[in-house]
Amino acid sequence: xxxxxxxxxxxxxxxxxxxxxxxxxxxxESQGGWxxxxxxxxxxxxxxxxxxxxxxxxxxxxxxxxxxxxxxxxRGLEPVPVPPETDYTMLLERGxxxxxxxxxxxDEPLTVQDIVTYLAHSRVTEQRASEQMELxxxxxxxxxxxxxxxxxxxxxxxxxxxxxxxxxxxxxYAGHGRAIQRTLRECxxxxxxxxxxxxxxxxxxxxxxxxxxxxxxxxxxxxxxxxYLYERLGGWRRMVSLRMPERRNxxxxxxxxxxxxx
Length: 262
Ligand SMILES: [Fe+2]
Ligand SMILES: [Fe+2]
Fold this sequence. Notes:
Blueprint: H1 4-13, H2 15-41, H3 51-74, H4 88-94, H5 101-105, H6 112-140, H7 147-210, H8 214-232
The chain binds fe (ii) ion (2 copies).
């Protein structure tokens, strides 16, 4: 039967598909880490209190990148090049979503509006990360090789999402509500397209590696288009709502270290 669990199990069981999966994940995480570190360095004076949390956010993403690299190494595999069409973080940036890398490379302080843009972009992408890791946690929390890594990353992504809700609500109360809603909507509608395209590209690569028969590949592609349709018709709204999270101040303090054996 075709299920998320059986698909991921197949990817996990084959060295080549596992190497591609971990390489794509590690690259996305470390790009996220770099972006957050730059944003933390350029936080405007008026938002100084936010800087340690952005630093922590970046440190978590860097840690996730290292965890995925460590999973590869543990299996005696080398990272493989990430095909550009599977590079979610880069495609979002190219699509003008979030803060442009050109801006982050400059040494000029960001504006409050930039910080709101960063948080809105994160609100949307952390929702995706949190849902994807939740799915992996559901099926693979007890897996001997990836279980610990999956649980830790999933918990971190939930924290990131909680932090985005909390900080965006704070900015909304401070009068940025309209800008936040507009940015969230733009981000979500762009993200669901990029997510669809990246999912199709990743599945095409996996299908080639794992020798999937045409009907199986077609069924999967249809499933991805179905998800997009659901999201376009209203599912995207779950990515733009704001609610005070149960976990407050989820990113206070330093990052928890990665498990030794991850
Ligand atoms: Fe992450
Ligand atoms: Fe995250």
